[in-house]
Amino acid sequence: MQFEPLPESFYKPSAEIVAPRLLGHFLIRNTPDGPCGGPIVETEAYLIGDPACHGFIGKTPRNASLYGPPGRAYVYLIYGFHFCFNAVCHPLGSAEAVLVRAIEVLYGEEFMRAHRTVTALHQLTSGPGKLCAALDIDRKFDGLDICDAGAPVFIARNPAQKEFLIEKSPMVTTRRVGITKAAEMPLRFYLEGSPYVSRRIKPGVTPLRKAHDKSSDKF
């Protein structure tokens, strides 16, 4: 099975632009038994000057990978137990990234079940900590080149992305979840038709805006 990694140039725009564009492409974990992973169905963007972004406090040894270059992995630990996988965006030194919050299980279900014991298939990867556990992603992959098909983890182009997006439509844009700082910013994107989405908009709540193609310099 051959996968074509998304190139570094894909990650050079702001994370606000890259986050919705990642939907439908494949997060792939290379294992001794073959590729494992599936299409991305939920993302969040974290930007320059964003109080919720780990780069807001400045560069440290723990967040150094967040500063690029683009197309690298930024992996961090939360609550002392769960890992989160991010794709670094923007030019070198900018500190922007896209958090991959959920993927669908397409390849390597057996590998995932060996690392995460659940009954319902969608529970394997319906959240950032869940997918990292299922794919066995941890801090050792921090700083990894995710544009390299030979890397342990990378993001690959889905040749049928357009069809997948239509099938799982609509794309919803809403505020981010699981954070307290700048939580109201409309930087979370997900495919409503996917059962793997970690958290949906509550009834009666309207999405704040649609994704756009302008880089944001105001945050």
Mind explaining what this structure looks like?
- Helix content is 14%, strand content 24%.
- The chain is an alpha+beta fold and 219 residues long.
- Strands 1, 2, 3, 4, 5, 6, 7 and 8 form an 8-stranded antiparallel β-sheet that branches.
- It contains 4 helices and 8 strands, in the order αβββββααβαββ.
- The N and C termini lie far apart (41 Å).
- Mean pLDDT is 90; it is low at 203-219.
The major pleated sheet works out as: 8 strands, antiparallel
Shape category: globular
If you compute it from the alpha carbons, what radius of gyration comes out, rounded to the nearest whole angstrom?
16 Å
**What low-confidence regions span 5 or more consecutive residues with pLDDT below 50?**
203-219
**H/E series, N to C?**
HEEEEEHHEHEE
Q: Which secondary-structure class do the elements indicate?
A: alpha+beta
- The helix content is 10-25%
First-to-last CA distance = 41 Å
Q: What is the oligomer described by this structure?
A: single chain
Mean pLDDT: 90
The amount of beta strand, in percent, is 15-25%
SSE blueprint and pairings:
Layout: H1 15-22, E1 26-31, E2 34-46, E3 73-78, E4 82-89, E5 96-103, H2 109-115, H3 128-135, E6 153-156, H4 161-167, E7 171-174, E8 188-191
Antiparallel strand pairs: 1-2, 1-6, 2-5, 2-8, 3-4, 4-5, 7-8
Keywords:
disordered C terminus; 8-stranded antiparallel beta sheet; alpha+beta; 4 helices; globular; 219 residues
